[in-house]
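User: Please run a holo structure prediction.
Assistant: Happy to. Please share the sequence and the ligand.
User: Here you go; the ligand is guanosine-5'-diphosphate.
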Amino acid sequence: MKEQYGHSRTQSGLPLLPYADTTPPSTPFVPSFRTRTPPIPHRRKSLLVLCAFVSVVSLGVLASFAVHSSRSIPVAPVAQAPPAQDVLDSPVNASFPYLHDDDIVALPDTAEYPPWVNGPPTQRFRDNLRNDTQYITSWLSAGWNNDVMTYMNLIYLGIITDRVPVVAMFTPSHIGGDAGVITFGEVFDVQRFRDESGTPLLEWLEVKDPESEEVDELGCWNIWEAVQYYEHFPRGSSIPDWLKLDISYTRAPDWVKQIPGYEHDKCSTFWSLARLAYPEDREPNLGNILPSPQHGVFLDPDEHMLCYDYLYYACAGHMSEYDSSYAPEWRYVGKYMHWTEEIQTIAAQYVNRVFGLPEDGPVPPYISIHVRHGDFSTWCWDAETPEDCFAPLPVIARRVREVQDEILQRKGIYIPMSRVIMTSDEKDEEWWKEVVAQGWVRMDHDALQTEQRYTRWHPVILDAAIQSAGLGFVGTDRSTFSVLSRRRVLDWNDGAVRMVLWGRKGADDH
Ligand SMILES: Nc1nc2c(ncn2[C@@H]2O[C@H](COP(=O)(O)OP(=O)(O)O)[C@@H](O)[C@H]2O)c(=O)[nH]1
Ligand SMILES: [Mg+2]
C-alpha cells in the first residue's frame, strides 16, 4: 500500500480518501527473461472452432428454414439452385443439401476475426495491425479489482484518443503466482461489450499468437515515474513477459501528474495522457529513454500501438471517482463489461446452492455483503485498538436493514435476513460464526470446493458476480472490489446500496 501515510486532498482542498492500493511493492524495472512458458489459452481456439461450427449449423438451419417456408418468404437463389451431386455428397452438407461448400468456407472467415485486425493472431503482433487503425495498450500490477479498473481506464482512454484498446490477461498478484493467468474474455463477455457499448475492443490473444516465441520490441510511455516519487523506474508488470514484449520506456513529462509535487495523489487525467497520443505534445517530450531489457534497444513510444506502463491512476476529475456517478470510465466502459454467460450461470447456481434451492431454478432476490479485511488492517492508524478499525457485524447489520427498507419501499419486495449472502476475505472462523448468527448465509468456497471444481480464480470472480446480481449490496468503503459491485448493483439492477465506513471506532456512526 502506498497511500497509508496521509489522506489525499483534491485541488480544491477537500479531503479525499483514496482507494486502497494493496499492491505488493512494485518490483524494480529490471531486465527480465522468461524462465517458463505461460499456459496457452486453448479455450479461445476451441471457441473459435465452436463459433465456426455454430455459424455453419445456423446457416444450414436458416437455409433449411428458407426452403421449408418458401410459400411466404422469398427464397435466396442459392437455396433454390439444384445442388450438384458432389456438394450433396459432402459430409458437411449431408443435413443441409442446398448449401454450397464455398458459402460454408467463406462465412466463418469473415465472422471469425474482429474487424480491427488483419486476420488470425500472428507470430509478431505488428503483422496483424491494420494500417488504417491505431491501437492503445497498457499493463496490470495490482489486486484483481484494481486491475479491472485499470482495463476500464485503458478502454476509456482508447475512446477519447480514437484508438482500439487491446487488453491482455489478468495476472494473479493477490491469489498466488502459481494460479496462472486468466484471459479477459474468460471473465468478461467481449462480444457483448462490443455490441452494447459500440466501442471496439481487442484481446492481445486476437492480435499476437499466445504460442508465439517471437519477442517484439515496443516503445511505451513511463507514467509511473512522473506521478510518484519513491520508485525510480517504470511500474513493474509481468504482462509484457506473458506477451513476449521487450519494452523501451520514455519517461512522461511531469505535467501528466494532476497535482504536481503532491505525493498522496498519483492521478493523471485522461486528457493529459491523451495529449501524449498526438504529435504536438508527443514530440517535444521524446528522448528520455530507457533501453529495453532484452534487446537493449532505445525506442520512442510507439505511434501505431500507443502504450503506457500503468493506468490505474488515470482519472477524469479526481482519484476514487468510481464512487461518483459522473465517472466516464464507468459510464462508457465499466457499465458494459458484463460477466460471461458461463460465469453468470455458475454464480446463479452458487446462490441457489447456498440458499438450499434447486441449482438451476430461478434465483430469488437477495442482498449481498462484501466485507474486506485482510491487508486493509494496515490502514488502521486512526484506530486506538485493532478491534476499533473494522466495522463490527452489528454496524454492518444496520446497513443491511437500510438496504432491506429501501428495497421494500422502492420495489415492494421484502428480502429476509435468510436471503443475505456474506462474501469476505476474512479467515477467522469465529467471525464467520457470528455472521451465521445474524441469519446470513456464508459463501464458503472451501466447503463448495470452488478451486477444485473450477480454478484458483473462481472464488474471487464468482464472489464479484454474486455481489453484482443482488437487489441490494452492502460494501466496504475504499475497497475497489466493493466499489465496482456497488456500481453494478446500481446500474444493472436498480438496486439499493450502502458502503460501510471503517478505520476508527464509530466510523460508520450516522
Ligand atoms: N474470494 C474473495 N476474495 C476476496 C474478497 N475480498 C477480497 N478478496 C481478495 O483480495 C483481493 C483484493 O484486491 P482487489 O480486488 O484489488 O480489491 P481491494 O483491495 O479491496 O480494493 C481480491 O482480488 C481477492 O483476491 C472476497 O470477498 N472474496
Ligand atoms: Mg486492491
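Residues 1-16, 24-100, 103-109 have pLDDT under 50 and may be disordered.
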